[in-house]
TrEMBL record:
Consists of three domains; the N-terminal catalytic domain, the editing domain and the C-terminal C-Ala domain. The editing domain removes incorrectly charged amino acids, while the C-Ala domain, along with tRNA(Ala), serves as a bridge to cooperatively bring together the editing and aminoacylation centers thus stimulating deacylation of misacylated tRNAs. GO terms for cellular component: cytoplasm. The gene is alaS. Its EC number is 6.1.1.7. It comes from Pseudotamlana carrageenivorans. It comes from the Bacteria. Binds 1 zinc ion per subunit. This is Alanine--tRNA ligase.
Length: 870
């Protein structure tokens, strides 16, 4: 069965059982501080499990792009070496949010695998949770009894907390689970060792394919468990592993998910898969990593120096490194695989198809820049090798290469071993550990459990309509970190504070109680759908109402910038073309920043056109048309733009100003006239094919022009308030250029004359052309004249001196042939004669200088020079 059909069959099976099919959520998580990437199918549904939001349908099925490269689930180091772990993989899932539970979940899993997909029952093993004393949990006999209806008891294994109790992270929803394992070994192998003994033993042919999680607890910060009000089903099946089983092959890489990519790598690199293990690992690493990187870029996460972007950069660099070392690829080539990937997956994941060109460009540029780093690193490494005495390179040096220049340590080790040198690995690891400790200490945070003041109170956001309202505190907690100190997080029954999101900053403001006590709200953020207000202190009267007030001025300025961002987006698409896609946006009160896909620098005309386009719409006084809670399809049909990498619910909010319609949760002005004026202050590149515009609106534009005007007046003043200051400046510049030229010519003439004079003053002593003289030149002049003379006269010995601002300088030039034949050394000469001018110096045997503070001694130094040649 082809992989496309496997995916389709899974989804339609659950669709028939009243599940809604939903598309994969983007991989990069935006409002979850505990998780960077979606690492399991359940991550995008976390708010449903936590009870912070309600799904439209209690039954959902999907295939979710997952990435396991950081945090609690990190498979990166396995990838390439085994046959069944990937960085990015698809997790097929069926979900019940407070609807069906173990009975149906198990029955359907069994039906799908054995009936629909026709997997032989004798290949399957299942497991149930054995219980755990510490957590006070008994064995999951409920699941055990259900499984007994389908599979013989000797194929039901029990497992401990590690394998059979699923937890999302240190905190949050969790529960016992049943894993389904498949034994794909030959009959011969099976006769030797029973499959039962190989389950969960990291055997490549006895692998877990599906995990059915029975969510029934919540793990609290103090480690204890509490029962969830509703029980849920969360299942996750590895799509690539399922394809391996159904296609009767022994490795995920032999399924049609990977074979086209591997074939393309073979063609590009001229290597053959399955001939040499090292080459094979490299090919698997690259085939895997290109998927992770391509999808992450398509989801809007570009490689960068921090956070999620840095993780992506490291994955790509790992692929480049394997290509560089084992496939001899010294130029970019991974970007060339995006084409096959798109052919294979573009249909199921349209975000890739739509942005193929951008994905290719970004990968190519990343490859190029890392290959340059590798080149520079090789030069530095060679220098380290030359300086190394003995047979071991110090860990600290290797660490510096790794840390400062990004040069990979395994490559260092490999190159050293080729040169018969060893790497002090213990020393390296020690440095690495030290660095890790430093950054851990810096980012350490501790989060207390919520203190609940009012149970079961849903929070409501009213900030689109009001900036002030009376609120009740429903819960709070303290979060302590090295970086921010102690902060309190407060949640209310309702709030006018806009939480950071969609690029727009969170609101600031204050809370005031009936006694006049005020607490400032420093920021507002959303975490898993809960709006959290950050304060430095806890309000005194927790159980009494507060007046919550948003800083109106800041909010208004931010709104001007947000609406202007929409108009800018519209302007770019209309002036540059519809290939322009939003790639990032930051809406502050002081300015706005907008990143978008476009392949060349904007010309001055284009920038002016964009400004005029936006300003025309500001002057057009276009009113806001806002629609809340409309079906997504309806908004899209009306022409609303949606963004890749953004997670939208079933109902959306659309924001329209004339022809500009966007899905947006941010706050906006009521009429474009409020913006007053729009001005672009910078345009530049952020990555291959991504440009960045920074712009300002409203009062910020007034400040910008008045500051410019002040500068202009000041400059005009310096130009004696002439009528035409630009012309006056041009004249000054021209005059300056011509004066510079004249000076240069004069200096050249002077040096020529001096050279001629000096040549006639040379005296021959013992076959050496000798001169010791004080000249009226600076240090550079002395050197120039010496070298000019040296170019014309052989067997030369010169000692020049000069005096400047009470300091003395000696400079000695000796022809190289004299250095060799007579053992003369300019460095030694200036060191010895330097004592007369009370100074010191040095240099090379053929040229050296000394500086000193006693110009009186120059005459004596010059007089002594003769002794070196006589
Ligand atoms: P394993 O022990 O094999 O690493 P897991 O216990 O980490 O698996 P779960 O977290 O239960 O797996 O994930 C559910 C399913 O997702 C697994 O049954 C497996 O089929 C698949 N899966 C997990 N990790 C990966 C991976 N790195 N690459 C491909 N598929 C994976
Ligand atoms: Mg795992």
């Amino acid at each position: 069965m082809k992989s496309q059909d496997v995916r389709a069959k899974f989804l339609s099976f659950f669709e028939e059982k009243q599940h809604s099919i939903v598309p994969s959520a983007p991989m990069v998580l935006k409002d979850d501080p505990t998780l960077m990437f979606v690492n399991a199918g359940m991550a995008p549904f976390k708010e449903y499990f936590l009870g912070n939001a309600e799904p439209k349908n209690k039954r959902i099925t999907d295939t979710q792009k997952c990435l396991r490269v950081s945090g609690k689930h990190n498979d990166l180091e396995e990838v390439g070496y085994d046959t069944y772990h990937h960085t990015l993989f698809e997790m097929l899932g069926n979900w019940s949010f407070g609807d069906y539970f173990k009975e149906e979940a198990i029955a359907w899993a069994w039906e799908l695998l054995t009936d629909v997909f026709g997997i032989d029952k004798d290949m399957l093993y299942v497991s149930v949770f054995e219980g755990n004393k510490e957590d006070g949990l008994d064995m999951d006999t409920e699941a055990f009894d259900i499984w007994k209806k389908y599979i013989s008891e000797d194929r039901i294994l029990t497992g401990d907390k590690k394998d059979n109790f699923w937890e999302m992270g240190d905190q949050g929803p969790c529960g016992p689970c049943s894993e389904i394992h498949v034994d794909i070994r030959s009959a011969e192998e099976k006769a030797k060792v029973p499959g039962k003994d190989l389950v969960n033993q990291d055997h490549p042919q006895v692998v877990e394919i599906w995990n059915l999680v029975f969510m029934q607890y919540n793990r609290k910060a103090n480690g204890s468990l509490e029962s969830l009000p509703n029980k849920h089903i969360d299942t996750g099946m590895g799509f690539e592993r399922l394809c391996m089983v159904l296609q009767g092959v022994q490795s995920n890489y032999d399924t049609d998910v990977f074979t086209p990519i591997i074939k393309e790598i073979e063609t590009i690199t001229n290597k053959t898969y399955r001939k040499d293990e090292k080459v094979d690992v490299a090919i698997r690493v690259i085939a895997d990593h290109v998927r992770a990187v391509a999808f992450s870029i398509a989801d809007g996460q570009l490689p960068s120096n921090t956070g999620a972007g840095y993780v992506i950069r490291r994955i790509l660099r790992r692929a480049v490194r394997y290509g560089f070392t084992f496939l001899d690829k010294k130029e970019p080539f991974i970007y060339r695989l995006v084409d096959v990937l798109d052919k294979k997956m573009g249909k199921a994941f349209p975000e890739l198809k739509a942005q193929k060109q951008l994905v290719e460009n970004v990968i190519k540029e990343e490859e190029q820049s890392f290959l340059r780093t590798l080149d520079q690193g090789l030069v530095l490494l060679n220098r380290i090798v030359e300086e190394t005495k003995g047979d071991t390179v110090s860990g600290a040096k290797a660490f510096e290469l790794y840390d400062t220049y990004g040069f990979p340590i395994d490559l260092t080790a490999l190159i050293l071993s080729e040169k018969d040198l060893k790497l002090d690995e213990a020393g390296f690891n020690e440095e690495l550990q030290k660095q890790k400790n430093r950054s851990r200490a810096a980012s350490e945070t501790s989060t207390e459990d919520w203190t609940i003041l009012i149970e079961d109170e849903d929070e409501e956001f009213i900030g689109y309509d009001a900036l002030q309202v009376n609120v009740k505190l429903t819960r709070y907690r303290k979060v302590s970190s090295k970086k921010d100190g102690d902060m309190y997080q407060l949640v209310f029954n309702l709030t006018p504070f806009y939480p950071e999101g969609g690029g727009q900053v969170g609101d600031k403001g204050y809370l005031e109680d009936a006694y006049g006590d005020v607490v400032y709200v420093l920021n507002t953020k959303k975490e898993n759908n809960v709006i959290i207000h950050f304060t430095e202190t806890l309000p005194k009267h927790l159980n009494e109402p507060f007046k919550a007030v948003v800083d109106e001025k800041q909010r208004h300025r931010t709104e001007c910038n947000h609406t202007a961002t929409h108009l800018l987006h519209q302007a770019l698409r209309s002036i540059l073309g519809t290939h322009v896609e939003q790639k990032g946006s930051a809406v502050h009160s002081k300015y706005l920043r907008f990143d978008f896909s476009h392949f060349s620098k904007l010309t001055e005309d284009e920038i002016r056109d964009v400004e005029s386009f936006v300003n025309a719409r500001i002057n057009g006084k276009i009113p806001l048309v806002e629609k809340r809670n409309i079906p997504k399809e309806e908004a899209i049909a009306a022409g609303a733009m949606s963004l890749f990498g953004e997670k939208y619910g079933d109902t959306v909010r659309s924001i329209q100003f004339g022809q500009s319609i966007e899905l947006c949760g941010g706050t906006h002005v009521k009429n474009t006239a409020d913006i007053w004026h729009f001005k672009i202050v910078s345009e530049g590149a952020v990555a291959a094919g991504i440009r960045r515009i920074e712009a300002i609106t409203g009062d910020a534009v007034k400040d910008f022009y008045s500051e410019n005007n002040r500068l202009f007046i000041e400059m005009k003043g310096l130009l004696n308030n002439v009528k035409e200051p630009v012309k006056a400046l041009q004249n000054l510049q021209e005059e300056n250029t011509s004066l510079k030229k004249q000076i240069e010519a004069l200096l050249k003439d002077k040096a020529k004359n001096i050279k001629g004079e000096l040549k006639s003053e040379l005296t021959e002593i013992n076959g050496i052309q000798f001169l010791a003289k004080k000249l009226d030149l600076d240090a550079a002049g002395l050197k120039d004249v010496a070298f000019e003379l040296g170019g014309e006269v052989e067997h030369l010995f010169l000692l020049f001196a000069t005096e400047n601002e009470g300091k003395a300088l000696l400079s000695c030039y000796i022809s190289k042939d004299l250095v060799a034949s007579k053992g003369l050394n300019a460095g030694q000469v200036v060191r010895e004669l330097g004592k007369f001018i009370q100074g010191g110096g040095g240099g090379q045997p053929f040229f050296a200088t000394a500086g000193g503070k006693n110009p009186e001694g120059i005459a004596q130094a010059l007089a002594e020079a003769k002794k070196y040649v006589s």
